[in-house]
Amino acid sequence: MKILLSFLLVLTLSVKADFFGDIGDWFEGAANDTGDWFTTAYDDTSSYISHNPGISILSGLAIVGVTEPLALPWVA
User: Fold this and answer.
1) How far apart are CA 41 and CA 7, in angstroms?
2) Looking at residue 65, what DSSP letter applies?
3) Which residues have CB under 8 Å from 49's CB, separation 6+?
4) pLDDT higher for 16 or 40?
5) Which helix (H) or strand (E) element contains residue 63?
6) pLDDT tens digit string along 22-47?
7) 63 Cβ neighbours under 8 A, 6+ residues apart
8) Across the chain, where does the E strand assignment appear?
9) Would you list the domain boundaries of the chain?
10) Contacting residues for 48 by C-beta, under 8 A, at least 6 apart
11) CA–CA separation, 53 vs 11, rounded Å?
12) Residue 27: in which H helix or E strand, if any?
């Protein structure tokens, strides 16, 4: 009886380990896909900005225009 229980315990643990390994592989794949997406988006954006220098000036002005009113109450 003890041998049967030991066998079932080992079988159960190996199935759980395989299951959690598959979940870990899925998360690793999802993280890699997300990282690739951000890398591509960054490369595309920086390439676009480098070919259109006026965009970086406009985006800088837009950032200041949005954040400066938020900072004014703290300054006063």
Assistant:
1) 51
2) H
3) 55, 56, 59
4) 40
5) helix 53-75
6) 777 777 777 777 777 777 777 777 67
7) none
8) none
9) 2-75
10) 55
11) 62
12) helix 2-51
- The type of residue at 76 is A
Neighbours of 75 (CB within 10 A): 6
Contact assessment for residue 55 and residue 49, using Cβ atoms and an 8 Å cutoff: yes
Cα 57 from Cα 45, distance rounded (Å): 14
Report the amino acid identity of residue 19.
Answer: F
The pTM assigned to this predicted structure is 0.34
- Between CA 20 and CA 49 the distance in angstroms is 43
Residue in this structure with the two tokens 């896909």, named with its chain if needed:
33
Structure-block tokens of residue 60? 């800088």
pLDDT in tens, 50-75: 666 666 666 666 666 666 656 556 55
In the three-class reduction of DSSP (H, G, I as helix; E, B as strand; rest coil), residue 62 is classed as helix
Which residue is associated with the tokens 């199935």? 15
